[in-house]
Design a protein that fits this description.
The complex is a heterodimer.
Chain A lengths: L4 H13 L31 E4 L5 E6 L5 E8 L13 H8 L9 H10 L3 E6 L4 E8 L3 H13 L5 H18 L3 H14 L12 H4 L4 H11 L5 E7 L3 H12 L22 E6 L5 E9 L8 H12 L5 H9 L6 E7 L4 E10 L3 H17 L4 H17 L4 H13 L6 H11 L2 H11 L6 E6 L14 E3 L4
Parallel strand pairs in A: 2-6, 7-11, 7-12
Antiparallel strand pairs in A: 1-2, 3-5, 3-6, 4-5, 8-10, 8-11, 9-10
Helix pairs in contact in A: 2-8, 4-9, 10-13, 10-16, 11-12
Chain B lengths: L2 H24 L5 E4 L5 E6 L6 E7 L13 H8 L11 H7 L4 E6 L4 E7 L4 H14 L4 H20 L6 H9 L13 H6 L2 H11 L5 E7 L3 H12 L22 E7 L5 E8 L7 H11 L5 H9 L3 E11 L2 E10 L5 H18 L3 H17 L4 H14 L5 H10 L3 H11 L6 E7 L1 H12 L17
Parallel strand pairs in B: 2-6, 7-11
Antiparallel strand pairs in B: 1-2, 3-5, 3-6, 4-5, 8-10, 8-11, 9-10
Helix pairs in contact in B: 1-13, 4-9, 10-13, 10-16, 11-12, 12-16
Classes of the chains: A alpha+beta, B alpha+beta.
């Protein structure tokens, strides 16, 4: 897009009037101040095609023929929330192991078939969904959907592959359990959500993975994998007609199932601010997390929270980053903000610092947290945050996969087709008072959960007066 | 193999052949490559599929260009470039562009330092202004340097000294390179940074941050002529500098195998076998690239042999880490708990022997060609991805038109090419073996050493100690 000619003239005039800079030379035409142009009109989420098969499976298509590539994602509307509490990791392990043998192909045959056609196919699970994603050159789309349906519908979880997978998962977790960031994130989740499924990592932990049996996966698959509880999303060089035909061809005769509802534990009430300390004597750095329960995605607080997040800890210009990295030089990165799932949400602050600066860092973070209640965002902070969210939305729709993930979000949370049109308008109307009010209602400095994972001997004595300390057992 | 797969197999051969002859023209990268009077190179490619522009400034300076006593300067600069000028405050670069949803970042490699932006099309002027301003007028002083040095130290702890296996990469580099400056990593050395002054940084800046060492890459919803005019207006006035010095040190060929054992807080033993491979300006890279693809993946020889057939590893993979002036090509495995390191090493060596003696199969070639086609398609998915590919070809590979030739070259690699390249690069006397063992194993190995039952190779401690 061309800058209007009037703006060019202004830039040119400004350029002539400028003072000499450090490298002295003619700077004809180089403006003295950064050129300005208004933000573009807010972008619109492209419409997607959708239909439902007779067996209840929803099919969504986002067509974009720019490159000869198609992604196909099969989304199951449950995840680790359906894991029995003592056997965390079943949903994730089931999804990861789907390609290890089917009624028609052995695991080796599948690997050869997929690799030969450069079809990527992998599965995983979060707390509330499981997803199997396949990516392919458009020439092999039929084979890809056929294989996706085959692994989704008729997996055999070959016993040797099951054993191998458990061994690999345990080896991976043994590495993670020596990683401070992993331990800190895990501890925060446990403390915030207790026995609720959000208190566990969706992938499971070594203690639970060790107890899994192949029959657990078979049962999970039989119980929860159902077409009427799923969505198939095509994105890329595929027409809605072709996608629907392929979905019907490979998934259409999969019968409906009655899927049981899963009972969940309640989320505990937050207690007074407490520091939970995990000692890692060989650590050179302390991982710091501060958290508090928030609200689910559908809550009206979600809108002002997006602005709050930008002002507080959403990028290089945020208050957290300015204070902790740019002014104090305590860290390489600091982020913070509210995030939400379907049933709950939480505020989290994440950073890390050298062991000796741990107490100082915690004090600085708490100070910035309190200031979100006492110091309303400035006009500049507000404008920057709002225009960032609106501009980023437009820039985050580049690929059909980007668009598909937004469409999935709308459907999963039941937000409605036109949600993003009004969402961006609502963002534009958020006031500094809205942000302060959110902080006052949702951010209680006396009920925070603080997690420190590092070499305790280097900082424990400096923590006096911040909050009571509870020592956590190591990994 | 079921009949159905045979049919598909034949179809895929047909498809690969068609792709080589016909799809190339359709997916030609049409770009403009122009050099301003001051030596700054400008590469523009239009892509009107979305209202997005990727702007990247590639400086041809990386960790290999550093003084051996000042490791980490190139990366330090990536940080200093965001500290601002007289007119732009620290980190305001981010603020100006984030206002429009823009994404801003930078990264440092062994050969280049790259500053990247992704902005709406009407913010190209602002983006160019910010990039030109810091190239011309960057503020470098002791205060900024001291602050940013602390940030880099925290980054070092995050990436190197704290996590499991954080030092393995440094060990691999110093094992592979003895003379060439690829022997140290981009994050550098904290002692060197502590000893450095802001004046030294200024000298580094004046040497390498000159327009004649920069390539501006723009891909997106723009008009080429408009971008060239803007490039001239915003960057054209900055005076040309002296041509920066280039690294002329050549790493001597390895003539006797090297082995090193290191101990790490990571709990799984890792065995890696590496070789000096062809760099990104060497035509042999295509054969070694295809070989890398053949060995990788669940159906590849490494996983099939070590993890499935022999059941001695929890994972196995290949790696081709290619740079401007050299490369490490290697394979490795993660040893199964209580498994044998020797068995892993023997199996890895056996796979390479088999390749050298018997070559690869046509089936394996087909798989690799399809993978190359898939990668080529995906590399065009975003403006930023295209800009990165253009920048790499222009600056690191030294030939921007590689973007239009690479796929053809990969498709033409034959089994004979691979066998010949393998015989050259993967010769036994060029082998580098790195074994990473859990710290707990250190005690056992020391005891074995004492009683003289078995003499493990001289253990090397990680090369750097983190100074507090």
């Amino acid at each position: 897009m061309r800058v209007p000619s009037a703006a060019l003239c202004l830039i040119f005039v400004a350029g002539c009037a400028m003072t000499a800079a450090e490298r002295t030379q003619p700077q004809l035409g180089f403006p003295d101040a950064p050129p300005t142009a208004p933000p573009l009109k807010a972008a619109q989420l492209p419409a997607a095609y959708s239909t439902r098969l007779d067996n209840g499976m929803e099919v969504v298509v986002v067509q974009n023929d720019e490159i000869p590539w198609v992604s196909v994602g099969w989304y199951l509307l449950t995840g680790s929330k359906a894991d029995p509490p003592t056997k965390g990791g079943i949903a994730a392990t089931t999804a990861q192991l789907l390609r290890q043998g089917t009624a028609k192909h052995s695991a080796d045959e599948l690997a050869a078939l997929l690799d030969r056609h450069a079809i990527s196919l992998s599965g995983g699970a979060g707390h509330e969904t499981s997803v199997i994603t396949a990516g392919t050159l458009s020439q092999y789309l039929d084979l890809t959907v056929e294989t996706l349906a085959e692994v989704t519908r008729t997996p055999t979880f070959e016993p040797p592959e099951f054993r191998r997978h458990i061994q690999q998962a345990l080896a991976g977790l043994s590495v993670s359990e020596r990683d401070g960031a992993y331990l800190a994130d895990r501890a925060l989740r446990r403390r915030l959500y207790g026995d609720h499924y959000l208190g566990r990592l969706s992938g499971g932990e070594s203690s639970s993975i060790r107890t899994l049996e192949r029959e657990d996966l078979i049962t999970f698959h039989e119980t929860h994998y159902a077409p009427n509880h799923s969505m198939l999303i095509f994105s890329g060089a595929v027409s809605s007609r072709q996608a629907t035909d392929l979905a019907r061809k490979h998934f259409g005769d999969w019968p409906r199932k009655t899927v049981p509802t899963v009972a969940t534990e309640t989320i505990p009430e937050p207690g007074p601010t407490t520091i939970y300390l995990v000692d890692r004597p060989d650590a050179t750095q302390t991982q710091v997390r501060i958290g508090q329960l928030g609200f689910p995605r559908q809550d009206s607080a979600y809108v002002p929270a997006q602005v709050f997040n930008q002002v507080f800890g959403g990028g290089f210009s945020s208050r957290l980053m300015r204070r902790v990295r740019i002014i104090e030089g305590l860290t390489y990165g600091a982020r913070g903000g509210f995030s939400s799932t379907k049933v709950a949400g939480h505020l989290s602050i994440r950073t890390f610092t050298r062991n000796e600066e741990t107490a100082k860092t915690v004090r600085v973070l708490l100070d910035e947290t309190r200031k979100m209640r006492s110091d309303p965002p400035t006009d500049e902070e507000m404008n920057d945050a709002r225009s960032y969210i609106i501009g980023r939305f437009g820039l985050s729709l580049e690929t059909p996969q980007d668009v598909a993930s937004k469409i999935f979000e709308l459907r999963f949370f039941g937000l409605g087709e036109n949600y993003y049109d009004t969402f961006l308008e609502q963002i534009d109307r958020v006031t500094p008072d809205d942000v302060t009010a959110l902080a006052e209602r949702r951010l209680d400095p006396d009920r925070l959960t603080i997690i420190l994972v590092g070499k305790a001997a280097d900082f424990e004595h400096d923590l006096d007066g911040i909050a009571p300390i509870v020592r956590e057992a190591g990994p | 193999m079921p009949v159905m797969q045979h049919k598909r197999f034949v179809q895929s051969v047909g498809f690969v052949l068609c792709a080589v002859t016909s799809s190339q023209g359709a997916h030609n990268w049409v770009y403009k490559d122009h050099t301003l009077d001051n030596g700054m190179r400008v590469i523009v490619m239009e892509d009107h599929s979305a209202p997005i522009v990727a702007v990247q400034v590639w400086y041809h300076v990386g960790s290999k260009d550093e003084d051996p006593a000042r490791n980490g300067f190139a990366h330090m600069f990536e940080h200093m470039m965001f500290r601002g000028t007289e007119r732009i405050g620290p980190e305001d670069h981010f603020k100006y562009l984030r206002r429009f949803g823009g994404a801003v970042n930078g990264y440092t490699t062994f050969d280049t330092t790259v500053y990247i932006e992704e902005v709406p099309p009407n913010q190209v002027d602002l983006t160019f202004w910010l990039e030109a301003e810091r190239l011309a007028n960057l503020k470098i002083n002791e205060e900024y340097f001291a602050k940013e040095r602390e940030v880099v130290k925290e980054e070092y702890r995050l990436r190197v000294s704290d996590p499991p296996y954080g030092r393995v990469f440094e060990n691999a580099l110093s094992l592979a390179f003895t003379k060439h400056p690829y022997r140290w990593s981009t994050i550098g050395n904290l002692d060197h940074l502590n000893a450095a002054t802001a004046d030294e940084l200024r000298t580094f800046f004046d040497t390498y941050y000159v327009p004649n060492n920069a390539t501006l890459v723009v891909v997106g919803d723009v008009k080429t002529d408009d971008i060239l005019a803007k490039a001239k207006r915003y960057f054209g006035w900055i005076p040309r500098g002296s041509d920066p010095p280039r690294v002329t040190t050549r790493e001597p060929t390895v003539t006797t195998p090297r082995r090193r054992d290191v101990y790490d807080k990571g709990p799984v033993t890792v065995v890696a076998i590496g070789y000096h491979g062809p760099g990104l300006r060497n035509p042999d890279r295509h054969a070694m690239n295809i070989l890398d693809t053949i060995l990788s993946g669940e159906s590849g020889r490494l996983y099939q042999k070590l993890v499935k057939e022999l059941d001695i590893s929890v994972g196995a993979q290949s790696m081709y880490w290619a740079l401007e002036q050299g490369a490490i090509w290697g394979i490795g495995s993660a040893v199964k708990p209580f498994g044998s390191v020797d068995a892993n090493r023997d199996a890895l060596e056996g796979i390479l022997d088999d390749i050298k003696n018997n070559g690869v199969t046509e089936d394996e070639l087909i798989k690799a060609r399809n993978q190359a086609l898939a990668e080529a398609a995906q590399s065009r998915a975003t403006c930023a991805g295209k800009a990165r590919r253009l920048g790499t070809a222009a600056v690191v590979e030294g030939d921007v038109d590689q973007v239009n030739r690479e796929l053809d070259d990969l498709m033409q690699v034959s089994a004979a090419d691979i066998q010949r390249a393998a015989a050259t690069y993967l010769a036994d006397d060029r082998r580098l073996t790195l074994t990473v063992k859990p710290k707990l194993a250190q005690v056992g190995d020391a005891l074995k050493n004492l009683v003289g039952k078995k003499t493990p190779p001289a253990a090397t401690q990680p090369t750097q100690k983190d100074k507090k």
